Amino acid sequence: MSAAGRETLIRHLGSRAWWQRYGASLRYALHAIVRPFDGFWDLTRERRGSMAAANTIVLLAMLTRVLSLQYTSFLFMRVNWARVNVFTEMLAILLPILIWCVANWSLTTLFEGKGRMPDIYMGTAYALTPYVLIQLPLILLSNVVTVEEGAIYSVLSSISLIWCGFLIVVAMMMIHDYTLGKTLAFMVMSLFGMLVIVFLMMLFFSLISDGIAYLVSLYKELTFRLY
Questions:
Q1: 84-118: string of b/e by CB count within 10 Å (b at 16+)?
Q2: What is the pTM of this model?
Q3: What pLDDT is recorded for position 119?
């Protein structure tokens, strides 16, 4: 981060007005999830949201995932911690969000979308609010209900995911100013775009890995012959 960027960040963190704005934008997530059509329209058009609040929600979603693995009762989630990497689990939340935003933004010109990359990221992040609000209490609930009462846990967990999916659809409608049909078609193409991006990333890292392996073997061969 540049010196100017650090000074700006410090000035913001020390500003009472900035913290009030941050708190208001974070609380706005509660409004957006219960009145999504108005909420996501105002989120970007009226600048009711903020990147700081969006980052906080994404961070909370990653933390929720880790806490779920750690503290959910074994009756509802069996975790082999010998094979679990906390960093990987957090990336399992963050990377799909980032790839989704890139794929979504890449297709906006083709579909005449009006959303910018920050708007897409912000809308997607705010749509994750039900996941945090429902999954965190479910961790406690899983430790007090019996297997016979497990249907409550399963239903609430499913509701959190379906709610998030619905909010993402509405967010894309409002951000890009699409009809429902065009939004669904656009999201299908965005998912296909995500597959393309993942394939290209895997191909890139595979080529890099092969290149490094070749250089290492070449170095070993030269070392063996010269010494």
A1: eeeeebbeebeeebebbbbbbbebbeeeebebeee
A2: 0.85
A3: 93
